[in-house]
Amino acid sequence: MNRSLALFFLLLASYGAHAVQITLFTEPARCGLNNGRINSSVSGGLPPYSYAWSNGATAEDLVDLAPGTYTLTVTDGQGETGEATGTIDAVWELGQPGELMGRSACAGACSGHVFIYESDLGGTAPYDYSYWSVFQESPGVQRFTTLCPGAPTPYTVTDANGCSGSFEVSPSEFPEIRVPVLVSSSPSCGGTGGSILVDQPEQLHSYWVTNLEGTYDELHLYWEAPGPHAITDLPPGNYSVGIWDPENMQLGYCTGSLTDVIIDALPEPCGRLTGRVFHDADQNCAFDGGDVGLPYHVLTIEPGAQLAITSGNGAYQRALDPGAYTVQQSLIEAEQLCPTADPAPFNIPASGGTVIVDFADSSTVQHDVEIFISTHVAARPGFPTRIDLFVQNRSFYPSGELSIALDYDPLLQDPGISTWSHPGLPAFGGAQYTFDALVPADIGLLGQELVYTATVTNTTFEQNTSNNTHVASRIITGSYDPNDKRGVANSSGSDSQFILNADEWIEYTVRFQNTGTDTAFTVVIRDAIEEDLDVESLQILGASHAFEPSFGQDRELVFTFNDVLLPDSTTDWLGSQGFVAFRLKPVTGLLPGTIIENTANIYFDFNPPVITEPSVLVAEFTTGVGDALTSDVRVFPNPNTGIFTIHTKGRMLQRIELLSVDGRLLRIVPMQGDLMMIDMKDLATGHYLLRLFNSESMTT
After folding, report:
1. Which of 508, 483, 443, 494 is closest to 622 using CA atoms?
2. In the predicted structure, residue 323 carries a pLDDT above the cut 70
3. Residue 228 falls within a domain, yes or no?
4. pLDDT score at 267
């Protein structure tokens, strides 16, 4: 008797307590004044919260308090309450002042500066300082100078009424390595486009880059990001690159230990390869009336495996040194008419200049419309959620009239419009639709999966209709990271496995959200595509805002959102979010067990990058025998809190085995019928495997 074995990946997740919890942080009343303070921190329950203090105040925090006891009662959005009590003590002692690092101390020299903020002292001005070198920077701010690196400097402060406090101050210090290390540079041509790669091993620095001809003078901040760092879009010329100090005094400060580095002039003459990739309707190898540019198409330039990508109108460009090259496009369902040579040879003359190589293609597919769902906005109880639908014409020919329909989970409240029509997309045109809804304010929904199915119907006949339907899901969660990258295999729908004999693409979505305090004007996503992915197979699926794609060094894919005007999350929670989605094929010959890992770096204006957690998929095989069993089984919800349901759609199972991720058998459960609820709440939070058996066949 044969047996069937199906393997599933299960996640048991634990969620925080539901009760309202309050933590109070108190500051005493100092130096005979009513200047005590209580700050509250509330968790649990379901926002929004309301606050009621025993003194009648309704704010989240209390200030200017007299000594005494204060009780806070918090009520959440479901009427649940919590209570906490804090005590303000009376102390005759000044509080720790706030500090801001000024000039760093040079190695071996007492040259450091620190700013002291008197507002946190809690006494009565004016204040007297025991340290000998203190100067008033502005009202309430004192500058301590000539501070030595190493051991902290002690000092005492006394207010007008004799209340005092003793503290220590230490300046920051320049590290021992002073000279920026030049790793590499790439040329600019036509006045811009050059780059310099600098590094400072095992240290975090910022760099001041100056063009000695006076055409460039910029600070590049990398305080929180280790190197190497690419400084891009530079005009040609000679550069000085130095480590920045807080006083912006590159010349004459830390003389002898901080050394300016002269970066040689970016090489001239240079050349530029430009061109257009287009559908040649009349097949005359010229871009003219009726022809359409092919957007977001990858080209490879040899030698050096340099990459270029077309813009939305099919144009591309790349700065190059003089020399002999070839350029080749990645053809997708098209035949190259011109150039006749593939790859196409070209030369950048020794004197530089611009070389044009256009690619005229003829489509091998008449009509093909595709739909894609992005579930980039978190689904949280009591909050709005949003999905975006993208309909794209993947052919060189206009589509017919389109009908778009979205099927969504009925538990969502206040749903928006879910059906649309479009008169027809032009060649390679696209349309975007948004669906908004409210997740019910029920904390018991945590872990439940919201499933969306979108369908597009074309009145013009299509040979390929497999991409006319797309299914996506989103787990209802509590707290979340708003900046992430997620890869999903296109057929299996897995974000942890790529099934070699079933999946063709990995669909990536990079989400970003402005969690700062003001509008973000520019967002840049830099994504180094790993070697196990075929970068020439790139297809862009959609984005929340207008963008410009490009390639940086080597295989770095760059999306630039200029003038995005992304509001902060406290001002507009939905509007503060954005994304870009694209897909790639793994390289041919990928072996089972290969780990496909990718990370994105997200830049908001001039801030250090937000580095996402890696998207990791493992290449695996499944045998053809028993695939029907796998396709007929559903495990939900997943992730869950220890209770889940297995539905086999009429196929009878003999038993279920639960295994740890390292293969240890943890439990055997007899299966009766085709629908069964299983309770495993006694297991620890983590990832588990389910193995399912019947009496017909086997799959592993």
Report:
1. 494
2. yes
3. yes
4. 55
CA distance 572 to 570: 6
Among 458, 480, 502, the domain boundary falls at 480
Q: What integer pLDDT is reported at residue 198 of this predicted model?
A: 62
Same domain, 453 and 521: no
Instruction: Give the C-alpha separation, 293 to 313, whole Å.
Output: 5
Let me know if residue 517 belongs to a domain: yes
Q: Say if residues 152 and 167 touch (Cβ distance below 8 Å).
A: no
Instruction: Compute the distance between CA of residue 224 and CA of residue 394 in angstroms, rounded to an integer.
Output: 41
User: Could you tell me which residues come within 8 angstroms of residue 555 by beta carbon, excluding any fewer than 6 positions away?
Assistant: 307, 528, 529, 530, 531, 535
Report the CATH number that the domain containing residue 554 is assigned in CATH. Answer: 2.60.40.740
Query: Strand ranges (DSSP E) for 574-633?
Result: 577-586, 595-598, 600-604, 610-611, 615-620
Give the separation between CA 134 and CA 186, rounded to whole angstroms.
48
- Based on the fold, state whether residues 26 and 113 are members of the same structural domain: no
In the predicted structure, residue 554 carries a pLDDT above the cut 70: yes
Instruction: Give the distance from CA 670 to its chain's centroid.
Output: 43
Is the same domain home to 505 and 565?
Answer: yes
Most confident of 42-46, 191-195, 619-623: 42-46
What is the distance, to the nearest Å, from the Cα of residue 605 to the centroid of all Cα atoms in its chain?
Answer: 14
Residues 515 and 433 placed together within one structural domain of the fold: no
The verdict on residue 359 lying in a domain is yes
pLDDT band at 180 (very low <50, low <70, confident <90, very high): very low
User: Whose CA is closest to 398, among 377, 369, 376?
Assistant: 369
Q: Does residue 382 carry a pLDDT above 50?
A: yes
Per the confidence metrics, is the pTM higher than 0.70?
no
CB 388 within 8 A of CB 542: yes
Q: Which domain holds residue 131?
A: 105-169
Provide the number of structural domains found in the chain.
7
Q: Are 102 and 112 in contact (CB under 8 A)?
A: yes
Residues 650, 685, single domain; the answer is yes
